[in-house]
Amino acid sequence: DPSVLRGAFVGHTDAVWGLVYSGTHQRLLSCSADGTIRLWKATEVAPALNIFNDNQEMGIPSSVDLVSSDPSLMVASFNSGHTSIFNMETRQRILTLESTVDTSSSSCQINRVISHPTLPISITAHEDRHIKFYDNNTGKLIHSMVAHLDAVTSLAVDPNGLYLMSGSHDCSIRLWNLESKTCIQEFTAHRKKFDESIHDVAFHPSKCYIASAGADALAKVFV
């Protein structure tokens, strides 16, 4: 339907792994297997406003999010195991979060990074089954935990900032109390296909719904 399609943002030369929209600035952030993160003006189809990591010094970006406590900042994670905070306007890398990764290991990949909606905290989901919490001001690791039986693929925090939801290739969704970092609920959501299972999880912004999408080609909504 031509009345729906606004046009295509052209620039990436490989698969796009992540997209995030900023309603505040009407900007769109994308990260791609071509190694770049690109900032677009969402109101018009035009070349990218800014390009980050174009010489791949941090690795290949796997996930990107807007920093909730400061809308001029974004946080990006990489397959190298690094996570950095960038200023979107100046392109400056402000902070690289503390990392103890063995960069020779393929399991150091970070699959998802999200920003806590009310606190200056970044949360990362790791290929090696861990979830880690970082202080955005100091870059220090606050907490690290083995959260699943297989790679953690997806994360979401509820709009009130009290609960964390994680999805994994172990087929389970887990709900965590953010204050105590304890699992308060776990359920199986998707079947495995080609060693993959859950690809994404989300909270509804106002209702008590959660949703997930999996390698079994299903999207599910839970009440």
UniProtKB/TrEMBL annotation:
InterPro entries documented for this protein: WD40/YVTN_repeat-like_dom_sf, WD40_repeat_CS, WD40_repeat_dom_sf, WD40_rpt, WD_repeat_striatin
UniProt keyword list: Repeat, WD repeat
Gene3D superfamilies with a match to the protein in the record: YVTN repeat-like/Quinoprotein amine dehydrogenase (2.130.10.10)
Superkingdom, taxonomy of origin: Eukaryota
This protein's GO CC annotations: dendrite
GO molecular function: armadillo repeat domain binding; calmodulin binding; protein phosphatase 2A binding; protein-containing complex binding
Ranges for the WD repeats: 9-41, 145-186
Keyword Zinc in record: no
PANTHER family with a match to the protein in the record: STRIATIN
Protein name: Striatin
Organism of origin: Podiceps cristatus (Great crested grebe)
